[in-house]
Amino acid sequence: MPNPSVNLTLQFTLTGSSAVTTVFVQKGKDLYLDVKTPVVLVPDAEFRWKFNSAYILRLLIDNRTRTTSSYVGRAEVSLQNHSLLLKNVQQADSGDYTAHIIAEKDQRVAEYKVIIQDPASPVKLSVNSVSNSTECNLTVTCSADDSHIISTFRCDTQTCYQKGGEKSEVTTSGSSLGVFLSNVSIICNHSNQVSGTRDMREIRPLCSPIAVSGSLFAGISVCLLKTVVVSVGLIIMVSAVISVHLMERLKKQK
User: Fold this and answer.
1) Is 19 exposed, middle or buried (0-12, 13-18, 19+ CB in 10 A)?
2) Cα torsion angle, 120, 128, 161, 156, sign
3) Helix (DSSP H) and strand (DSSP E) numbers for the chain
4) Per-residue pLDDT tens for 148-163?
5) Helix/strand/coil (H, E, C) string of 122-142?
């Protein structure tokens, strides 16, 4: 019996305004298609799941199942809700899936457009940095198997920003490739409807130090800086008191 819970993270369903529901599934995973319309079989009627123009399986009124030879071991139908489970889907399984009640008339009770996708390929983020006395310029390349994006980031002692803002594009395989700034990191992200990968680099090691002048204390908190200054002041005062005391003792001994 198909178990819908095992597919919650494996497929993505997009329901539009029409009767057709689009479902994205990762290659090698299982496909689950349900039937929301109640199915009641009368004598001499049968229920069928169909892929494009070919039948996958037939369910008779006495719950006997007839599965097309190419789907034996891969396709299952639920006797309770008539949902379809198709195991280990491949690219060839992309297409139109319909459920029918066949009696005096052919009643279509479910319709799906299924798209099988490969997992999003790994990405690589490469960075070239150039620093001067006041700023750091980073030129990054975010690359996937079939595409890449080049973007520039500029940092000074206070802030970093991405020239032109976040960049993204749709690759030739239909996935999304993007590079953007998040807090103190540059992120390269590659995703489609079934999976995603990312690569990231922290900015600080790439731009450290930006410059000596004006950036010596960059990244040090104000509280820490005050603590250091006060501590140094106290040390100087204590040392001065001790020095005066020693000098007075030496004078008395003479």
Assistant:
1) exposed
2) positive
3) 2, 18
4) 999 999 998 888 999 9
5) CCEEEEEEEECCCCEEEEEEE
Rounded to an integer, what distance in angstroms lies between the CA atom of residue 228 and that of residue 151?
Answer: 39
Evaluate whether 214 touches 46 at the Cβ level (below 8 Å). Answer: no
- List all residues 6 or more positions away from 234 whose beta carbon is below 8 Å from its beta carbon: none
Bridge-based pairing of strands 136-144 and 176-182 is unpaired
Distances (CA, A) of 51 to 48, 70, 73, 96, 109: 10, 12, 16, 6, 14
Integer Cα distance of 93 and 49 in angstroms: 14
DSSP state of 6: G
Q: Do 189 and 196 contact (CB within 8 A), yes or no?
A: yes
Buried b / exposed e over 37-60, threshold 16 CB at 10 Å, is: eebebeeeeebbbbbeeeebbbbe
Q: What is the pTM of this model?
A: 0.68
Hey, CA dihedral for 4, 94, 70, 111, is it positive or negative?
positive
Phi/psi at 92 (5° precision):
-65, -15
Per residue in 229-240, pLDDT tens?
556 566 666 566
| Beta strand ranges found along the chain (DSSP E) | 11-15, 21-26, 31-33, 46-51, 54-60, 65-67, 75-77, 84-86, 95-102, 106-117, 124-131, 136-144, 147-155, 160-162, 167-170, 176-182, 185-191, 196-202
